[in-house]
Amino acid sequence: MPEMNAVVLHIAQPGEPNNIKFETVSISAEPKPGYARVKLSAVALNKRDNWIALNGYPGLKDGSILGSDGVGVLTAVGANAPSSLQGLLNKRVTILPSVAWGSGGKHIQGPKFRVLGCQPDDGTFAEYVDVLEENVLPAPEALDDAHAAALPLAGLTAWRAVKTRGRVDKGMNVLVTAAGSGVSAFAIQFAVALGAKVWTTSSSKDKIDFAIKTLGVEGGVNYKDKDWTSQLAKLAGGDSERVIDVVIDGSGMLEECIKVLRAGGRYVFYGNTSQQSHTLQAQDMRTIYWLQADILGTTMGSPEEFAELLEFVQLHRLQPVVSSVRPFTKEGWEAALGEMKKGEQQGKIVLSMA
């Protein structure tokens, strides 16, 4: 059997930490029917990868290859592959990390939905990856390998949150929390490109300044300040705290964000990185129904949305924010993981096979 280098998760005994190793593993001679093989040229890390490594995941098995983001060259397809896929052979492609979304279109994922990089699907932290045929699309021509690899998971999450669920449009005031995160950076870029005025939060002045200078944010506030909602209202020029049409939140600041919503506003959340527990008080509930506000959960996105995302990025010449690019080696992997654990990066961390 042929072999390849990969980042492999080894499940530890109860009470002990899992172990992630950069090692050589075997690979089948060709992909299974219904699958396509991509020779990867660049892959990107997500916080999700480290979270899975530390905490496990339902059905996760020893020997799993992690990773959800990647770009490369389509080298092989299974028997009876559609002609559209065969036309991509030996061309640069990107990988949709939403696996088996189902037939619900944009509305909701099906019961077999999962994210690439968990069993039964080995992920992209390898020299080759086999994915379902429907998960292979042409890579954006305007992006090099490192930036194309940084786009899929965080970009798709942000696109669905901003466009499908948040329905952000020109002239709106939009709050994107947690400046500096991968999803937030994309959400800001998309909302700005759609013509919205975008505001942000962070405990880091450097991250707010970066978002203003690089991503087009109007301004930002420190969410650790007790009066940050009032500060935001002053920045946005409002007569009251209610200055925001749409909130895009991955940190889990539900109660605080409700304070800044205008009537008919939308609070869209895709995560809870703060790990806060939420108990809505009677006043909060009255506020929500009196404002006719929407609280919308969202996760990942459909193949249709991924195609829309790639077209939008190409049309607006958007450039994903990349913090660093390292070689896909044992030393490169360890340095990249160390950078992610520090949490000080601005943008995505990429590993290159070049």
TrEMBL record:
InterPro entries reported in the protein's UniProt record: ADH-like_C (IPR013149), ADH-like_N (IPR013154), ER (IPR020843), GroES-like_sf (IPR011032), NAD(P)-bd_dom_sf (IPR036291), Zinc_ADH-like (IPR052711)
One family name in Pfam for this protein: ADH_N
A GO term for molecular function: oxidoreductase activity
Residue ranges annotated for the Enoyl reductase (ER) domain, each copy included: 15-351
Protein's UniProt name: NAD(P)-binding protein
